[in-house]
Amino acid sequence: MKHIKRRERESNEIRRKIIEAARSLFLNQGYAEVSMRKIADQIEYSPTTIYHYFANKEAVVRELLLEGNALFLQALQQSQEEAEAAGLNALDKLKTVSDAYVRFGMANPEYYSILFISNLESVSLVSLIDSGRFKGFELLEAGLLAAMEEGGIIQGNESLIASSVWSMLHGLTSLLLNFELPMTSSKDELISFTIDTFFRGLQS
């Protein structure tokens, strides 16, 4: 029994090494430039070992997308649950979830790039309709509708408004990840100010 558990642990560790190496290589070199051999060399294993865990490069991408999407959706859902537990109104729940979006990107820059910048979905079998990214958008839409019904923001096309909110969050996150902004305040203050200012423009 101990031997089986040890083998399972070792197998999981190797799988994790493959995923982490591939994530870094895809982002630094681009999908087209990365081969299974390069991934193997990165972690000092033979290509045969890599193929034991993943049939091909597309399978590695699929695993990365599934993992990243799950982490992203979990972050948004957790923030929503915490906001509900705190008894916040619909608008403040939206702000909390919006903050979680940006925080996810800052805490997981490689996964954020994979999900929202590098377009690795185009070479995978992961359907956008099933992804955490899409479900996160649905969560945002539902939150906007609730805020409209409460009178916290203007009535309108919740899908259009959700796309606008998402664009703002993506722009802010991308700036924070990729540029050194000339700021006299902290990143926390910038995130809070940007989200508050945006939603103030939607208030009825």
Percent range for β-strand residues: under 5%
Largest sheet: none
Give the N-to-C terminal Cα separation.
63 Å
Cα-atom Rg, whole angstroms?
A: 20 Å
Number of strands: 0
Class by alpha and beta content: mainly alpha
* Dominant shape: elongated
- The domain tally reads 2
Helix count equals: 9
Low-confidence stretches: none
Do you know the CATH topology of the largest domain? Tetracycline Repressor, domain 2
Q: What sequence of helices (H) and strands (E) makes up the elements?
A: HHHHHHHHH
Helical coverage, percent range: over 70%
CATH class of the largest domain: Mainly Alpha
Give average pLDDT, whole number.
Answer: 88
Task: State the CATH architecture of the largest domain.
Answer: Orthogonal Bundle
Q: What is the name of the CATH superfamily of the largest domain?
A: Tetracycline Repressor, domain 2
Domain HTH tetR-type: 12-72
Protein name: TetR/AcrR family transcriptional regulator
Keywords: DNA-binding, Transcription, Transcription regulation
DNA-binding region: 35-54
Explain how this protein is built.
With 204 residues, this protein is mainly α. It has two domains: 1-54, Orthogonal Bundle (Arc Repressor Mutant, subunit A), CATH 1.10.10; 65-200, Tetracycline Repressor, domain 2 (Orthogonal Bundle), CATH 1.10.357. The protein has nine helices and no strands. The chain has helices at residues 2-29, 36-42, 47-53, 57-85, 90-107, 109-116, 132-150, 158-178, 187-200. α5 packs across α6 and α7 (132-150) packs across α8. The radius of gyration is 20 Å and the shape is elongated. The mean pLDDT is 88.
